[in-house]
Amino acid sequence: GCHPSRWIYELIHNNFTVCDLFQRARNANLDSHYNWEHPHQLVINGNQSFSTASSKVLSAICLDCHFHFMFRVEWEREQEDLSCHHSQSQWPLGDTQFPWHHLAWACSEDEKRITQERSKYYPLLAREFFVCTAAPCTVQITLEVSEPRMPSSWVKLLLDHETILQQLKAARENEPARYETATDDWAYQAPSNLNTYLKNLLEATPDSARSISKRNKRFCVLFGPRCFHIFRELEFKEVVDMQDGVDEGSFTPTAPPPADGPSKSTEVNTYRAYLEDVRSEVQNLIFKSGNTAESPTFCIAALHNHLGCAEVPRVSENALVNLERYKLMGVLPTQSKEIVVNAYKRQWDLLPSRRRDLVEALMAIANDSNDDLLSDYAITQSSVFESQLQRHSGDDDDGLVAQALEYFSLSPPNTHSADAILQAFREKVARDPFDASTARSMLLLIARSSKDDSYQMKLVLEADPKMTLETCKVVLRLKTLDGPWEDMVRATKELLNNAPSSEAKATYLDALDSIAEHTASPSLKQAVLELRNEFNLGISESDGTTSGDARATNLNLPLGLHNIGNTCYLNSLLQYLFTVKPIRDIVLNYDSFRLGLDDESIRERRLGGNKMQMDRGEAVEMATLFKTLRTSDRTATRPSQRLANAVLLSTHTLLSSPKQPSETPTAPNPPPLPARPSPAPPTNSQDDVNMVNVSVQAVSDSLETQSSSSTQTLVNQDDARSDHSYEKVETVIEEEASQPFLAATGGSGDDVSMVEAPLDDKKPAVDMDLDESKGTPVSAGQENPDIDMTDVEKPPETVDQKVLNALEHQKRSSGTDQQDVEEVMGSILNRLQAAIRPTSVDSETGIQFEKIMETFFVTTVNYTKKFDEQEYQHEISFDRSITAFPATEGPCSLYDALGRNFDQQILEDSKLSRYTAIKTLPPVLHILIQRSQSMGNKNGNPVVIPETLYLDRYMDAPHDSPTFRQRVQDWITAERIGDLKSQLSKVVANPRYMTFLQTYGSGDGTAEETTNEPAVGAEEPSKQQENWDFDGPVEDDFLLVSPATMRAAAVGQPVARLEDIQKTHATVLEMMEKELRQRQEALDNSLNSQKQIAYRLHAVICHRGHLMSGHYWVWIHDFEANVWRWYNDADVKENKDTAEVLRTLSTSGEPYYLCYVRDEDKEQYVSIPKREIPK
User: Biased composition, Pro residues: where in the chain (predicted)?
Assistant: First the structure.
């Protein structure tokens, strides 16, 4: 349900949250001249609105698309005092207070009934019923939507200005004297004339209806034979009177019966209502053309009044309006706390299965509103809810149970019955058979969280690889299990032929095998063995081992990697890293790079300048895998469990709890936040004092904890999830002309942050030996991070031996450690760094460099300047990737996405300008497309990915250089281009702003002199002009044919020509479009001249799903063979069409992590190893 103002907003924007009205309309075949996919502008329609003691009826029509909307608000008169009313609004809102309606969709009218009622007079499309869900309120709303009364062919005829001009030209040639005073303005007056005909008809009595002569000058030109069918459809009686081959006949209307509805309103589905509806549509054409000084009577205010609510100004411009929390709560941004709480109480009763979501939405809306009272209420509601969770929901401190439920499309918290969860599990496996292993893991996770033994047992039994008969039936889509076994085999074989992957095929065969086990059928068992052989499948889900992967028929195709428990992201990264030569060199020649195994050597190792902890396990396991990838003759292999553990579990975790059977996973952090930190006003430097402010911010931390520590080092990392990909340092206060050196700061992550600092022997800028016990946040379930890793009292055992020994016994909770790619990439690279010795050490800073840092790490500079200062202050950051931000709406180029990170930003509130530049680039550049948004939403807008990326425009340059001055000009030009595009989109969408200019530009001219003509018949002498009357203020520009009686001619000034105003409108648009073209051309020329630093696209890691769950795969380009390969776990496919691959990647929101390589060095740094099968 929703608040009435939300209901009106969703109606106007064709996007009901629950009701499927507009989805049905999109699938319908509608005859409408206009597209209806736009915000509707509703105006009063005819004489069909009225009020009674127990109802209010509002008839409206959309000004743009001409669809009709009928609103009927009804209530029980006897219960009117119990209806919702805003007078009950007071804070705090009690449970018996109902200030506003809360509308929920009840049902739709039966399609058969709709068909029966549909007619020419009332072409009904849909009838929807809504009710107020407040307990005592009896209000219900009936919404009826009907199609335009005028077919699109009518509209085309009325607006066919060219044809009317041609008819006028022909009339002038045939009868020049008669059409001597006719002007080209006639071409635009067909709607006005038709409006007048209809007005006269609606006001006429049966005795006063006026006929229209077919020989009438205007009628001949504006309508003529091509429009006769319009008047026939309007039920005018046609008279044909042929005189010398010319029809001298007429059209005579039949006056409709007078309105006899409530309050003298017009009843719908009558001839009078039909005429009113047509006239309203004609008037909309006149309003849209701007050919009237009058404005339409909009009815949105009346509709809000009928529903007892107030309109929220400019709500459609609010970026929050379509966020899920506002849809779920059924309110609009900026509404009062009373409205929010009223909606929350109604939704609480309506949606018991989504109460956790409602509490979270309430908290978020309170945060948006900045209302302390609402925040206090939300916090109280959250506390109460947590204390009342049902017993089988168990403990879910890390949110994993909630993720598992969402995986099965169930809403947390776990208030679901065991049967409901089992049904969702079966449907998931049937829908995604390739993900059966993950589904079982999720089911076990839910089972383990329960405190109900019976509940837990039901789920555990279902999670066994040997499926239950009911699950087999659902997975194999069998109607019955009582039929012949041959039918089951045929059904399974059909599924196998259409299965998308080997994992899916294995699931189908496991299901068939389970039926064979349950039914003790030797025939079925034999059939399973034959099918496994036929489809080259030898993977058994029950033990996770490979009994025989199929031999590869194409050894030029790289080896795939089986998913061993939701490790698709790890598989994608391993496939990519296998193609990076420095990584391959380190892993396969580890003895040449490895760090000494004694604890003393490890203690001296630094990651950059930070303390770290040696971890050889990953390097050893990767070496084993890489050798298999080069020498196997199979289609796919399995990465070892030890490798997955080495990457996803920290050394500290392995060493501190070697006897634990499994590690309790924690919910993954969201992807890293923007690389650019939020600016703080810089501190003014003092004369003779060069201050350095240093604080480390682990941007990948959660918002709640990101500032809680500034002294963490790698040894404090409790698991791989704590990998902090981005570290920043606060502004360095110094003159740009000074010569600084680089000082590494201790950080809470694995990367290196550097800050320019002065040489000061007495007081170092940063204490390099940071106290590991300070400032380390410890979350629930974590071990104490302050552990001495070396036990001197025990026999000397290297950390390497300890880690490898622990990996033999450590297990992960498969299926729950879905992690962000950037985090896992950081984990892999950091652990390899931790296992190799440095190749060089900066003598001044102590920063240790090795092959990985030289290959991947990029140096950026963040510049900040106050409005009233001339010099920029800056900070330097050392990161393993840069960030690109997709557009908030629609697609954008990768350059635009990177521009949101690097281009200048003006912060009016802080009176700052800032931008970011790249100081040094690595040979291999990683770009993270930041798709995470607030409240855990994913930005799925496409980013157009170029094959060659030129980075000149982002490189650092001196502020007094021509390069920087041109960059500033480019920023200004780009901003102006954005403004022009925004203005043009508004002008094109709403050209009626020119109405004011047109109305006052046309003067006070009166219509031309005209004469009356007989209803049927004879032409008057040409010197006598036809007389046209005006009908009042609304129709001052409308022309009508007067009755046959003669009137005096009115003489006045001619009306200004309409096309002059249209030309003015066109000129304004042309000027804007011309400027846009010129500025775009200037910007393109500038950027096209900056193409010296070229990087080629090498790999793209993609993700489909939500932020907290989904599936990963990777595209990798083989430059030598000029082919793209798609690695999706065990499946590997090729595509030689680069354009097709880039088109695919650039038209969806799936690309997530881009890997570019310096074009001139690509052969040196990346390659796809060919298989070397031992003979």
Answer: 667-682
DSSP one-letter code for 1154: E
Query: What is the residue whose two structure tokens read 């190799």?
Result: 836
Burial class, 4, CB count within 10 angstroms (exposed 0-12 / middle 13-18 / buried 19+): buried
**Residue 4: half-sphere exposure toward Cβ, Cα within 13 Å:** 26
- Written as six digits, the tokens of 899 are 């521009």
What residues does 127 pair with on adjacent strands?
144
Q: Which of 656, 1095, 697 is nearest to 877 (CA)?
A: 697
Question: Judging by beta carbons within 10 Å of its beta carbon (0-12, 13-18, 19+), is residue 761 exposed, middle or buried?
Answer: exposed
Tokens of 537: 């499948």
Q: How far apart are CA 773 and CA 795, in angstroms?
A: 26
Please give the average pLDDT of every successive group of 10 residues along the chain, which has 1175 residues.
90 80 67 69 88 90 89 86 82 83 86 87 89 88 90 88 89 85 85 89 81 86 89 88 78 86 88 91 85 78 89 86 89 91 88 82 87 85 65 54 86 82 91 87 83 76 82 89 86 88 87 84 81 69 43 78 75 91 88 68 56 58 83 81 64 43 37 39 37 34 31 31 33 35 37 37 34 34 37 45 46 40 79 80 71 89 86 85 88 90 82 88 93 70 92 89 87 85 66 50 40 38 36 36 39 47 74 86 83 93 72 90 90 90 87 92 91 72
Residues comprising the chain, all counted:
1175
Among residues 826, 904, 943, 895, the alpha carbon closest in space to that of 1095 is found at 895
Q: CA separation (Å) from 352 to 358, 364, 1033? A: 9, 19, 56
Question: Phi and psi of 105, rounded to 5°?
Answer: -70, 125
Mark out the alpha helices in 292-397 (DSSP H runs): 300-306, 324-329, 337-350, 355-369, 372-387
Q: What is the pTM of this model?
A: 0.44
Beta strands at 610-611 and 606-607: parallel, antiparallel or unpaired? antiparallel
For the chain, what is the radius of gyration of the CA atoms? 37
Tell me phi and psi for residue 907, to 5 degrees: -105, 95
β-strand 636-637 against 697-698: which pairing, if any? unpaired
Closest to 726 (Cα-Cα) out of 681, 770, 670, 778: 670
331 Cβ contact list (under 8 Å, min separation 6):
2, 3, 5, 6, 339, 340, 343, 365
Which H or E element spans position 1062?
A: helix 1058-1088
Cα separation, 154 vs 230, in Å, equals: 7
CA–CA dist 298, 380 (Å, integer): 42
From the number of C-beta atoms within 10 Å of its C-beta (0-12, 13-18, 19+), residue 740 rates as middle
